[in-house]
Specification:
The structure is a single chain. By secondary structure, the protein is α/β, with parallel strands linked by helices. It folds into 2 domains: about 90 residues, Leucine Dehydrogenase, chain A, domain 1 (Rossmann fold, 3-Layer(aba) Sandwich), CATH 3.40.50; about 120 residues, Rossmann fold (3-Layer(aba) Sandwich), CATH 3.40.50.720. The protein is built from 9 helices and 11 strands. Helix 1 packs parallel to helix 9. It is globular. The structure holds nicotinamide-adenine-dinucleotide.
Length: about 280
């Protein structure tokens, strides 16, 4: 039987409809949801992401304002900028765009964003709440997108499911693993040094991949009927590739996200959803 395609574009469209209604209700109360992004340097792909976010925000009635800082900005300058935005009563969400230049460390900066405006969940308080399953106010955008897509899969709710998370980065793999655990899945985390992935993947009803290695997971690796969420995005000869070999996986999986058109489109909206929540 053909796998269910977990269509990120259609989920994102549904979320945008919900957000438009919520921003309209806020505007009636005289509140215009506003996200401030602190952007350091000139990285073109990050800039493209921010422009796209601003366009989506505009369509939803959310103001996305970008504060640019020079590539050479130091820790204190970045902190001061975040603190100033944190005090601004018209700004509901504050985001520090990553990746940061090599001389800056998110660990030394993230706590300058007040936790109640930390819409990308970078503040240690929000990260700690997420890690301990005690319910953070703001789930970071990409992990939130993964969970929203899992919510549309045949394996939802995750309670008692065997799930594997391939990748353990602070931005994707680790938080997704903790969020699946908080939903009472039995979670295995695999990474670069785990050795053979196949025995773990073969036993898993839910497979989430965020490694940045195109074609890392193939159909033969999967348990028939598994739900597969592919977070990977790598440009190969100008074409965006996921971490899952879609052609072979779609024949074995029960549900699968495409790349492009899976996690990516939901990520933006998940972030803007946090801004609306902050404004509410
Ligand atoms: P990262 O490089 O920080 O982390 C990659 C993780 O994968 C590491 O934990 C590493 O140990 C693991 N890994 C690498 N090779 C592996 C292998 N052969 N076997 C098992 N594990 C392996 O990357 P990241 O920031 O977590 O991003 C991962 C991927 O997701 C990238 O392709 C990135 O572009 C993509 N991404 C997509 C979105 C989106 O919205 N769609 C958002 C963020 C990241």
């Amino acid at each position: 039987m053909a796998a269910q395609i977990l269509d990120g574009r259609s989920l994102a469209a549904d979320l945008r409809t919900e957000l438009r209604a919520r921003t309209a209700a806020l505007r009636e109360r005289g509140i215009v949801p506003r996200l401030a992004i602190v952007f350091i340097g000139e990285d073109e792909s990050s800039l493209a992401y921010v422009r796209n976010l601003a366009r989506t925000g505009e369509r939803l009635g959310i103001v996305v304002a970008v504060e640019r800082l020079d590539r050479s900005a130091g820790t204190q300058e970045v902190r001061s900028c975040l603190e100033r935005l944190g005090r601004d009563p018209h700004t509901h969400g504050v985001l520090l765009q990553q990746p940061l230049p090599a001389h800056l460390s998110i660990r030394e900066i993230a706590d300058a964003i007040p936790p109640h405006k930390d819409v990308d969940g970078s503040h240690p308080t929000n990260q700690g709440q997420l890690a301990f399953g005690s319910g953070t106010q703001y789930v970071p955008a990409t992990p939130a997108a993964v969970m929203l897509l899992l919510g549309r899969s045949p394996h939802w709710p995750l309670r008692g499911r065997r799930a594997v998370m391939i990748g353990r980065s602070v931005v994707v793999g680790a938080p997704v693993a903790m969020l699946m655990l908080a939903q009472d899945a039995t979670v295995t985390i695999l990474h670069r040094l785990s050795g053979g992935l196949q025995p773990y993947v073969k036993l898993s009803e839910v497979v989430v991949v965020a490694a940045g290695v195109p074609g890392l997971v193939r159909g033969d690796d999967l348990m028939p009927g598994a739900t597969v969420i592919d977070v990977g995005t790598t440009l190969v000869d100008g074409v965006l590739k996921g971490d899952v070999d879609f052609e072979s996986a779609v024949r074995v999986a029960g549900a699968i996200t495409p790349v492009p058109g899976g996690v990516g489109p939901v990520t933006n909206v998940a972030l803007l959803r946090n801004v609306v929540k902050a404004a509410e």
